[in-house]
Amino acid sequence: MRDSEEAHIRGLLAPFSRVEGLHPGYTMFEDRCHKAREGNIFEPATGPSLTCSMNGHAVFGVEGEVADVLRRIDAAHIVKWQPNVNGPGSASGGSMDYALMYQRTRGVELDGQLMSAPYLQSANEDVKITWDTAPHGTTPPLYQVEGKGTPACPPQSVVYSRCEITPQRPEAVPSIRARYGTVLQVDIQPPLSDGTYFEVPRPRS
Fold first, then answer.
1. How does pLDDT run across 4-19, given as a tens digit for each residue?
2. What would the mean pLDDT of 114-127 be, rounded to a whole number?
3. With CB atoms 3.0 to 4.6 Å apart as the test, which of 45, 56, 61, 108 could cross-link to 23 if both were Cys?
4. How many CB atoms lie within 10 A of CB 77?
5. Which of 8, 35, 17, 38 is nearest to 188 (CA)?
């Protein structure tokens, strides 16, 4: 189960490195198992006693126009993106239509209102893509990929923790941004399960 979940996450991340205009910055993969909070006589513990989850994310520098790179991501058929449920002339968040519309209008509606920060999300919500945006008239940009210092694994404060960062000496997000101008991040984690792939049920009392 652990091996198949890891292969699934890494298999989703890998194709992005082959998209023209995306330059790999670093990739982080985490696998953690933690015990649930213990209950007491007033508030008995519920849910599984042990939960294991995985997630991965990759940060890229963007060369050229973001819209062109987004179209190449779409053409790569890595996943199926959220449909545009609003139909022609508008677009819904998470869809490729909205992402491209945001880039085309520089994040400003016809009436001058700022649009919500764009993102791409897969139809099954496993994959989410965000990127630096610079809509007209906003300083700083409405959204920037987070990160200041050199990427580091979180402290090992759980029952089991495995964290890998590639390359071993990763470049910080501001440095990637200074080189390419725009940073894009890909996150892999099923939000409905928090990336959970294994649980140990709590013994019945």
1. 888 999 999 999 999 9
2. 89
3. 61
4. 8
5. 8
pTM of full prediction above 0.70: yes
The 10s digit of each residue's pLDDT in 28-75 is 999 988 777 655 444 555 566 788 888 999 999 999 999 999 999 999
Residues in the chain: 205
Whether residue 201 has a cis bond before it, omega within 30° of 0: no
Which of 145, 133, 73, 128 has the alpha carbon at shortest distance from 105?
Answer: 133
